[in-house]
Amino acid sequence: MRQSRPAIYLTSETHHSFVKVARMTGLGTDALREIPTDSRLMMDIDALQSRIDADRVSGWHPLMIVGTAGTTSAGIVDPLEKLAEVATEHGIWFHVDAAWGGSAVLSPRLKGGVAGIERADSITWDAHKWLSVPMGAGMFFCRHPEAIKRAFAITASYMPNAIADDTVDPYATIAQWSRRAIGFKVFMALAELGTSGYGELIEYQAQMGDYLRERLHQLGWEVVNETTLPVICFTHPDIQQGLLSTSEILQTMYERGHVWISDVVLGKQERVLRVCITSFHTNESDIECLLEEIEYARQRNL
Ligand SMILES: *Cc1c(COP(=O)(O)O)cnc(C)c1O
After folding, report:
1. Mutate which of 125, 126, 132, 182 to test ligand 1's pocket (most atoms within 8 Å of Cβ)?
2. What's the confidence (pLDDT) of residue 33?
3. Is the CB of 72 under 6 A from ligand 1?
4. Percentages helix, strand, coil for the chain, rounded to the nearest 5?
5. Between residues 157 and 56, which one has the greater pLDDT?
6. What pLDDT sits at residue 294?
């Protein structure tokens, strides 16, 4: 009998690193299922259910659901609780990509926004994103140590035995063998700030995001993404009416060289401007400076 092939469920908004994952693991990009999103760019649960059912019928093996806690483009959090339920019901691995947004768990005010993350089988979370340590410091969490062991544990006569039963040799829990002490910079920042200190930094940046949203609104811009995280995607009636484009605005901003932002395509829609606040140094006057540049560029290109 032909063995069924594994399938991975994600959306158009999922980070493209999963394309690399599919290639590297040998599953191939045929394994990727791009599930439609709803109007808020979250994975559509009904569409996920029907795709899983259809795959089962046609001999595929549903392997993993990828939920994103804070998409790169728009800070959208997939319905993690519901994804966890579907995963449990069908016996599918539930991975949460929390590369940037995962840091919300450190803030009592924001952590409700990523509820359901605690039900993941595995989580990726990058300290070099919102925890402000130098690149790179990606972290991987998995609640199934036996799975990690099966993949990576190995004994070699030339390696010393673990000093004690409760020590874990990193070379036996990850693909890499030799590596730098990447965790040290995270440890030092955490020792200095504590989780509550980090929580304050993160909440402060979310507040700066709220401030930017409010000011954009006052100036006649329209924020198009719905998130409590400080990623702000926005457009202007002048752009929607075709009087100017985001690339013209950006070109002017880049030529002046005072600030840098980018544009992005959300879902299947038109380009919008995108700002992501990830520095605890960002303050209201930085945001006013950004707004001045944006407004200058808009008026200049009309
Ligand atoms: C940045 C990002 C990644 C890529 O992570 P790196 O560890 O920096 O390669 C993956 N997923 C999301 C949602 C991201 O924002």
Report:
1. 126
2. 98
3. yes
4. 45, 20, 40
5. 56
6. 98
